[in-house]
Amino acid sequence: MNDTEVLIIGAGPTGLVLALWLSRLGVKVRIVDKATGPGTTSRALAVQARTLELYRQLDLADTVVERGHQVPAANLWVRGQKAAKLSLQNIGAGMTPYPFLEIYPQDEHEKLLIERLQGFGVEVQWNTELLELSQDEEQAVARLRLPDGHEEDCRVPYLAGCDGARSAVRKALGIGFPGGTYQQVFYVADVQASGPALDGELHVDLDEADFVAVFPLAGTGRARLIGTVRDERAEHVENLTFEDVSSRAIEHMQLQVEQVNWFSTYRVHHRVAQQFRRHRAFLLGDAAHVHSPAGGQGMNTGIGDAINLAWKLASVLHGKATDELLDSFEIERKAFAERLVATTDQVFNFVSANGRVANLLRTRLAPVLLSRLMAMGKVRSFMFRTLSQIGLNYRLMPLSFGTAGHVHGGDRLPWAHDETADNFAELARPCWQVHVYGLAGKDLTGWCAARQIPLQVFAWSPAHEAAGLARNAFYLIRPDSYVALAEASSSTAALERYFTERSLRPC
Fold this sequence. Notes:
FAD-bd, RIFMO-like, eight-stranded mixed β-sheet, D-Amino Acid Oxidase, Chain A, domain 2, six-stranded mixed β-sheet, FAD/NAD(P)-binding domain, Glutaredoxin, alpha+beta, 25 strands, globular, FAD binding, about 25% strand
């Protein structure tokens, strides 16, 4: 293991995706986890469109879509009746190749990631626990307890803590984790059932303050129930069974539960680590931020952390960037995590609020208002962009510069396609590249050729204008498919300045 360049602590989705991306970029990784093996139960379900877009770089997107389940609609229930039906069919049409809500349970997701990681010759080392962590100017040193009980010092240039909300890495670094804990106890159950709520759609019971949602899974009659427990039962969470918490869902949604495959209870925190980086160690996923499950953002945000950090680590380790590039990881991802925690807090507090007024707003006003809002194209687009994370941007941050058309440096490259070309096709390669929509000047063509930067030139079409791209402008795309530089002119001076000022080499 002496040639390991990045040690990853934690083999959940965040750690596995980081290991995959680094392996894809030629970085030697070691990934360990104190668990005995991959998870067999999970809470995370949604795989958002932005995650699927990025999964194209690992040839994962098609498999996830094929094995998962697309949710056509969300139903809101009040007093045992459907009060509203919100269509999700092609809700993101024209914005992404994945204009839908995809359900793919975390335990199945992890198995797929482990399988793909094995294709790079990397095996997760289970039963391996981090005991101590120290650092100097040259390396991080992790004291590990191996499966046989022996201890080992693993010395690596960089270490990534992907080890969850109770992160041993975060504690070893002495990084604070301010925030709080929701008073509600959550339960989650994987069931085989029948009834009107088992129709492949999402169903949410808005009655009273005990939130209950039925998420469809691939296969006939399979569903995931997620709910809250607010009364005196929550005081004895360790003794709760499915029978203790399922009566409301069964009564209100007329569920006939035939088999409970697994059941668990848990509490949810809303916290953001004070730092995402300390010297040669990084925090990602739940080790860095935890929040309400509202909107299915948690797992996807951790995966986003991993992809953001992976190409930066690879650039530094391959001598194409200085260590300063790694500072941008915290700048970009911490800002998003803080916004996400605030937003999910607001949504969850509305759904779970107590009191007569809150109950009236939730059961009377919300179904009517949401039905009307979802019928409006702009509202549907806004909601999809927000939940799918395709609206996430890094504007006004160190790696983002310029504007061309409606696209700013730091934006996700807009998807634009027609019968002749799809501008996302070339993004499968995780490298720096330049896009031009229209005509590329000789200077730009020569500059890219001299530096071996792929130049993609697309014949101008109405699809490009509709996506907000500017004709004949150029867009420098980062390896994670965000726009680094948007330049309306064809001058290569801006490109040269971009790389020089940030001490970056594109190849």
